Records
---
Amino acid sequence: MKVTMSENAGNSGAEEQFVQLFCDVFGVEKGQFVYLQHPFVDIYGNHRTIDFAVMTDDEKIAFEIDGETWHDPGKVSREKYIDDLLKQNSMIFEGWKVFRWTDYQIYKTPERVKDELITFLGYSPALTYFDGDTPKQKGEVFKLREHQEEALANLVKMRENGKTIALVQGATGSGKSAIGVLDAKQTGKRVLFLAHTKELVEQGVSNFEKLWQGVSVGRFYDEYHDTDSFVVCASVQSIIRNLEQFDPNDFDYLIIDECHHASAKSYRKILTYFHPKFTLGLTATPERADGEDLLEIFQNFAHKLNIKEAVETGVLCPVRCIRIKTNINMSDVRINGFKYNALDLEETIMVPDRNNLIADTYIEYANGKSAVIFCTSVKHAEVLSDMLCERGVKAKAVSGGIKTAVRKQILDDYSQRKIQVLCACDLLNEGWDSPITEVLFMARPTMSKTIYMQQLGRGMRLHKDKEFLMVFDFVDNANMFNSAYSLHRLLNISEYVPGGLVLGTKHAIEWDKDMFQKGNKPAVLIDFPVYAMDYEVIDIFNWQDKANKMYSEMELIRHVSAQEETISRYIKEGKIVPDMNVPISEHKTLHYFERKRVKEYCEKFGWTEITPSNRKQLFLEFCNEMQMSYSYKPVFLISFISCMNERGEALLSDVAESFAWYYEDRIKNGLIAEKKPCIFTKGGYTAKDVERLILASPFKRFEGMGYMRHSKYLGVIQIDKCIMKTFDENDISDILTYCTDALERYWGS
């Protein structure tokens, strides 16, 4: 019997379709950077979710997929319509770029949605992982930790060596903000501290006041316009709007908090305006899709503190893991791009046996401990909560769908240990974590590294009564390419012993491993029914991580001077052998190539490697290649250039009209329209016939090389943006000369 999806499960048919469209445009491997049901708080403190969220080097982007009635004030209640506007306005206020579609658009005009995605994000957006929630500052004395001392020493050494830019990267809660304050203090130079939200600005003020006593600290945002203090803590937006109030040499030390935003246009304005003697970037981002732009701005890593180092230095708590195998077969669960098909997943895992296993595992292994169970849906959370209550456990289901006051009360009760277990179908509140959490149950299969890491972070805060966090991974049977994330896959650890330490100091991990090898169970596991002699080597292969370091077939095409159809044919014929094949469905397989193959294939097949620096030149050379069976190519180029705007775009209808006029003019002047039979020699053609001819013949070659693209819904042809960056009047003149000469040769032969 099919399981009915909960209304608040966070999935819909239209959203499933959007996932597929996103992957069609950018590639499945980009899906790992997409956050589903991203939590955020509106301006009134209400907890909400964004359907889909991505982060680039420049901005946070939200995608909302709703029914048509949500957009039409005549079809929805006034209260609902106003509430929806509040949500959108709050997202914009918090710095989100928001794009919305109706489910009708997703289903009925998918090509338009694809075109718009490319327009909004570009061809190959450099997506990055979300960096998690920043916890609120506690009223405690800052204590200089080991990694901070090392970072401060490195920064001093870098300046002695003449370096002017550095980046400190650390996990959330690692104390990296203190590094910036203390380093600025030891230089004694005037400081500008920048952050992208008012809350982070206030945290900066607090940090400077606590760690650099006696220094004057001022604010510069909203109604605050302090320009004279020795330390100025400012929001990016306010500084940009008031650059004229500052001299470029006002500050010797510039600190940029959450510096993964540093490549955004707004940050670039600041970085190019001010001339500090030293610039320090701070970020909690654990991993980036494309770090080149960031490294060009913050070139020197003073210290990189990842999650392992944060645990090793005692900033976050150690983590142990127990894997619980289920009898659930996930092999037939379809993948919608980068996520499990919601209906398939719900039908597969929402079964009594698996739910009983989860509830019984808590009773057997963690009874009485504070635990969070991450569930697939509201329904799943409610079922597990009920099952635990039946077993005498104080458990509550919690989600973004319940009223704010009720949700807050549940979380408060949990923090006060009045509730033992939270069954959550989302990531709880943005920024929420509870140091008392001793156990996490990963009962929600996910292919998203972002979601798994955020779930893990909910339990890693230090607490005086907690020696470690125990993670229970519920491992369902799956194939190589639809396996869910687990702690061992996340950390790339192939050796597993039940309850073994996976995150801790190097000494503790070695001691723990030695204990197990000797057949002794560590004393801290006395309450857990695990056996010291159990050992397993597990498969931690992760195709998404591997693919992210490779080129997809689409990316390969953009890097070599060969037609798309040529690449596809060579793969079918076995002349090009992919380094990894990913069967997404019965009828679709994705091909990936090691990046070194580009040079190998260019040498083997006589192609040229395409780079940003030579892309325009290769385009011009391609325009000059005029081996013609018909006169279409030069006529197309002349027609396109005559209709092209400054962005390299032209309406296909305008190009077709100019294209047809060329042949009609020849006929009018008593000349043959074309040497071979075609629509112009036969006559009776329509404007659409001309458009189809252009797309099928001359344009297709440019598209196949990645030099041009066709926005089907908008009816626009455009030159690749990388080419247009340096495209000028001289280039246009050269192309027109190529075309004129080619036509003279063609008709003169």
---
Amino acid sequence: MKRLSVQDAAFLQAESIECPMHIASVQIFDLPKKYAKRRDFVPNLMKRFGDMSVSPPFNQKLHSDWSKLDVWPSWVEDDKVDLDYHIRFVALPAPGDKDQLMRLVERLHEPVLDRNRPLWELYFIDGLEDNRIAIYFKTHHALIDGVAGMALVQSALSKEKSASGPLHPIWQIPKKKRPAPDKESFVAALRHTMEDAFEQVSSLRQITGNFLRGELDKLTHGNMPSLGRSQAPKTPFNVAITRHRHLDVFSLPLSRTKEIAKDFGATVNDVVIAISGAGIRRYLEEIGELPDKPVLAGVPVSVRPEGAEQEGNNVSIFAATTGSNIEDPIQRLKAVSVWSATQKKKISGLTSTAAQNYATIFGLSALIPQLVGAGDFSMPPTNVVISNVPGWRHPLYLGDAKLSAIFPVSVLIDYQAFNITVLSREDSLDFGLIAAHESIDNLGKISTYMQEAFAELDAASTALLEEEVARVSAKVKARKKKKATKAAATTPRKKPAAKKKTSKAPAKAKRKKVT
């Protein structure tokens, strides 16, 4: 039995029928040509899986015992996991396109997971055009976070294409062997409990100190302190929601994004936030709802130690400007970059426990309007959530099928009804936009505007490069010209050749004419 962390338990407490707390991904695979007519890839795959046992965390379910006052939830192993329930097969009317796939995923993403079972479901989706299949895989956010989810997906796939032989499904990932912990004495267990409590108290003291220093800094610079009040403006994204969702996806080249970021002294994440801000700005401007203050985004940051188990949540978060109040794309990117660098520096100064507790407090402040029904009067700390989850840089395969895309599908809560999450893999940034029906009626517009904003930055980066090339070329030409002029001025002129003296025959004396 393993007790949930404060952060994991918060995701359980926040869940409702209208606001499910599960995260998901849509993985799309290109099938070999031999499956174009046979369409038996999934049955063959299930045969290759062989032993259908289930390993942690996918064999864990929730447990609490009120009769023993054991009310804090824990994970316990379920030795009778019903895979016929957790693994499902559906098909689109062939040939199913991307829009039809997204409409299906919207429906699959709406229901909450059954808390009497391990909190995950997996759907194989057949019938896609261009000889493809998809996998929709959802897990509760209390079970894993986005970074852990990506790590588990990667471990379930292979770097090599394989048409035969055994495979390990994602619910059966071999665990790293770790030495069994020694049994602790009562005194040792008590000491560790006290150490954990001291660490929690110390982290809260660190968070409080940082907050007070920030408030004093505002006063020093002639600004009014926030006193904990939200600085986010009111937008159509900040409304009470029902369970109906809109989903849209697209991809951008990662290598080009890195080049753009480098050209303007920013990061890939800064570019993601800036083009999100551009899409948000244009959409809100169209519907006459663009606020004067910038739309703020909650940006999750992983604080999971290297080599740690890929279970539960190890994230912190900071508030970032989207630059939605800035029209110029370059100035918007620069504003985002400066703001983000400042906030990341604050997070990096916290211990891992403090960073997680800060995220929990941040999340609770976002949930307060939902819990007390005061969203019309009290804004959450940010308007939207923008998350960037890093992945792998090499091709991956499920048997002999190549992974061609993996789109994230995230969570929404009341009064924070728009989420943009991007997963990076190989040379691609795969974006998943999800919004409540009440907040955005045409999510495809924002997707289009974001891609056009990326094209603007791409053009600005290209122009910058061309200007630099032209400047360097002009400099080289000027240097060559100067060198040639200098060479011409210092080279001595050749003296003209002396004329040879020729001896003339003496003139004959003229005879005097004798008269």
---
Amino acid sequence: MNTQIYNKLASYCSAAERCRADVEEKLRKAEASEEEKENILERLVAEGFIDERRYAKAFAADKFRFSKWGKRKIEFALRAKRVPEDCIGEAIDAIDPVEYERTRQELTEAKARTLKGDRSSMENRARILRFMAGRGFMLLMLVLINVGLVKADGLITGREPDYAGRKLVLTYETDGITHTRAAVDSCTVDNAGNFSLDTRIETTQKCLIDLGYYKGVLYVEPYKIYNVNLPPYREPSKQELSNPYFSPKEVLLSLINPAPDDLNIKITAFDDSFDVALNRLIRSEITPERIENEFFELEYKFGDKSPFFTTYRYCSYAILVNLYGPTQPDTAIDAFFINEPVAYNNPAYWEAFSVLFEQYKDVTKLASNKPLEELVIIHHVLAGTMPLSALKTIQTPENKLIAEQVQKIKETGASGSYTYTTSVTSIDGKTLDLKDFESPQIFIIFANSMLGKSQSDLDFAVQRTEKWRGKCAVLVVFLDSDAENIYRLTQKLKSRDNILFSTENSEFIKAFGVKNAPAYFRIDANGKILESPAASPENFNINL
């Protein structure tokens, strides 16, 4: 055994109570074999330097007495250090209940004194409850909400040290056509990994949190509190970021001590059974009888009357019914859509909508459900199968908002529109105006350094820069962030004034609405878009 390491750790444990996780973290950095590390740990435990039960009681007492933490926050912190549950239970029980109640009252009063206006107002009571929840007095909040004394905002809380210092933004999609995301709340994870997000929503939503490589998903109901685990943080790789088809992987966030009837649990179980039923139908001869059998089996297992989950199930059934070729999509639309209100907040509604109405053109059949008819029109305008002028027929307030967003999308990068600025910055840091290229027209290539097509487009740019000098300049804008690869590709060029990073030219390229490479446009020196999209380089002809 390495006695030097052992003595250092024994002194470390003597200075203050330590748990096994604390010592393991110190040992992780030590230069010793795994066998030696395990022997050192066992000896420290055997000689009483490490005692999880003693540590838990000291930790709980200190955090309550000096930091004014509530029991829930203490529990979460001890669990994060992997302290056994029986030790945590004893430590929590050792807190004096009289002192605990006195502390709760003092904190409540102290917070109330900082608030403006009527302390008993619904808004201020909600602020007090959120503050107390952050301190770990979660049970109080749950009791008050459940008995209806206050209708506070909901909360999403958790602890994940991997995310310390990172910003979390809670959003949801406002509709399933434009996929516009609305922000709900944001927070910065503290140094210990603790975070708290308010869920100020009026209807149940599928909420999203961007988590690097992952996109966290949680079905959030108004006024409910969720304690969640986040997946280990992982940055997307350079290759993934350079891939125009990469998107973060959706993961349903796991809940700590969820209620048995929690919506997330019900949807997960239903989705698993639905996928089995769907695969079973696809592998067999699809008949109305088989579809009906699967429907009744799923409803027998999952049927309940909660509005969101009922809509979720029935829109999923529409996809099953649509499998029967001779009647698709009319039977599914008649059974599950034509007589139902639009469920703007339900992802299953939008999934079925995109399947059923992708090729649906005779919108007059939907006249009895005006909001649905309008959504199908909006969908086809965005897809380019109906003219932009069709949006003028939209009347439903919710649909008008979606139509406005579609109009912005369609007009972004359209011929006749202008870039937001005529100033660009080359990869060598030169700031140039479009007129500095001394050409009446400019051919723009949006590229990705990982794509072979972009390499040939770059070669085209080099060849045409000299040939078209004074008549048509060529700009190459790299959409990926792999600076090392981009420099390698362009290092032999005589001039790189016409090579741009998208990150340094975001205001310029915003007008084009480009997300993936390759893409091509033709503009003039004033930033007016002349051709959108332009032909690819091998087919591009310009009147010189």
---
Amino acid sequence: MPKNKHINNIITLAIFIVAAWFFASCSSAKLLDDGKYELVKNKIEINTKKINKSDIELYIKHRPAKSSIFKKKELVTLDTELVEKSKSNIKIYVNELGYYSNNVSDTIIYNKNKATVVYRIEAFEPFKINNMYYEIADKNIREFIFSDSLNTKIKQGSVLSTENLEAERERITANLRNNGYFNFNKTYIMFRASDTSAGKKIVDIKMIIENPSKIDSLGSRVYYNHKQYRIKDVYIFTRADASRVLREPRFGQGLDTLKLDNMNLIYRKPQNIDEDLFIRTNLITQNDIYNEQNVNQTNSNFANLNLFRTQRIEFEEIDDTDIDGEFSYLSCHIYLLPLTIQGYDLGLEISTNSSELWGISPTIGYIHRNFLKGAERFELNLSGMYQFRIGNKQGYKKSIEFGINTSLNIPKFLMPVQIKYFQKNIPQTRFAANYLHQRRNIYTRTIAGLSFGYEWNSSDFSRFTLNLIELKSVQLKNISQDFYTKISKDPYVRSLYENYFSLGLSTTFTHTNQLETYTKSTHYFRVNFDIAGNVMNLFNTLMKKDADGKHIILNTRYSQFARVDATFTRNIIIDKNNKLVYRLFAGVGRAYGNSISLPFEKMFYAGGANSMRGWQVRTIGPGSAERDTIFLIPNQVADFRLEFNAELRFKVVWLLEGAVFFDAGNIWTLNKDDNRKGARFEFNTFFKTIATNTGIGARFNINNLFTIRIDWGFRIHDPALPNHRFVKVKDWFSGDNNSIHFAINYPF
């Protein structure tokens, strides 16, 4: 089989250029002056397991340098003054934990011109809290605190720590701000401790909540009670710079005002958003007591509509009180800046290997964020795939498929009964339809599906999807006689290529902290669960049976199965130019009842630009089984998959990023009816059939909008080879031992 010499030569040249640039850019380490030492390591020793070393590390400001990919580390010279500052930081932190009796020391170990600093922390018995007393000037707040005292974070016998005291301050502040005290903040709360235990380290705590004060006309300080606020009026501004409208009335010319259920909508024509949407999204209503939780939820609700680029909520105090003088008033201003209503997205994935197997997969996406004028999100995605092999003795072979996916998300919970949980958390009702047409030289298959369900955020970082109805129909035709003869010999393989339909449900849970950009690392977790056929199973007595004894409707067998998969991705930021990203994936499915095997579309596969990059898509596994020669275009699938992927990403220059990656994993079958040799998962031996590859990649980050990616993967261990052979480095560039992938955006 001829090699792709042109591609190999181009990439080899590129590697040579990058390598030359690398060695040219690595400057030699600077020499240390006499009497100076390089700081190479910090060690931490603590006499108690109740204090975490990782927490202590955050307070050490004198640290050794880190190496980057294309630049040798700059030496860090030992600075004893910074060591002393680090000790001081550690002592303050240990005090905050409640270990007021402590000793923090250091030892510097010298080895030639290198130095290691050892920080030793001795934390002795902490103070414990005995009684809690209160000194609260404001009668209303005092009554509120007493009524909520059972929920206090400060318990008798708990450690006297800054952390516990701060948690109680934040709890009380949040409760007061959720009950009308708009101007209250935690600086009004103080604690005083008195040791009355005669050396037994037991203290009494007094909580003091001060009143606000001001200087009167005579220059004297006057204290007054905290104000409790109600909402006087609510203004929602769209399609305009609302703050400028308030500053410059003339700028407001041409704006209209619409009264909506105790709120005022100020807009510039045309107003293309359904007014009812604002009523359902906004939780801040006229005459209600100010509630910060409702304010935050309203802000989150508007953000989750995906209709506005920015949203902010501001309050203005009004010089007015109610008849009894009990409440003051606030005017609420909600400023919304809409996104572009329509958008388009293009994608392209290209992959090939040295055996001349090519795959091209273009995608086109369209989105309308306000389809029915109520923030309904309509999406339409077109996809295609053209896979072919040229230059072999079998001639020109190809596989073509195209698909269409469409969905409509409505920001309402469309259900006959209302659920209290969703009164504040706005869910999405989702309708979706899809169609896929596959044409190969051995068969033609069409897949059509409909689904109905809900999506909602359970928190700022977690999201649920529940599809109550998932209906799918799969039809095969134009099956070649030779192909049918081959698959008929194995009932399991034949079951993968039969007409069927399924009726079931699915659910997905995702959690991520990727919005927390301040953190050193981020993570993403997703789990999917599918189940189908159980409802149909209830009506088996009403159905006919086929020749295999399986129940059918309209001469088509229904599918019955369960399937679950989970993904965990972690992004570790090393420094501004380097990051380590890894992903774990596990998935398993099982057919039962009316099915012999999982539906083909629910099977797992591996390989490709976003999986095992030493292989093309669907060319690996299951286990150590040889590739199925029934297919000219690879189509390896199974019902169990394990995979680990990791890559080190680094900045090269300008828009160019580099990557070094490693992938390990495979697919296996759990079905006893699968007769493919080496395909079964065996717990005692499966590790021998784990495939591995390494590789290098180049990524062109186009203004953080999208990334053009090229990955070149080399097989390390190929379980399909005789004796599960490892591939020698010298063989990486021959045969099928490497694959090149062109794709848009990162693999994970």
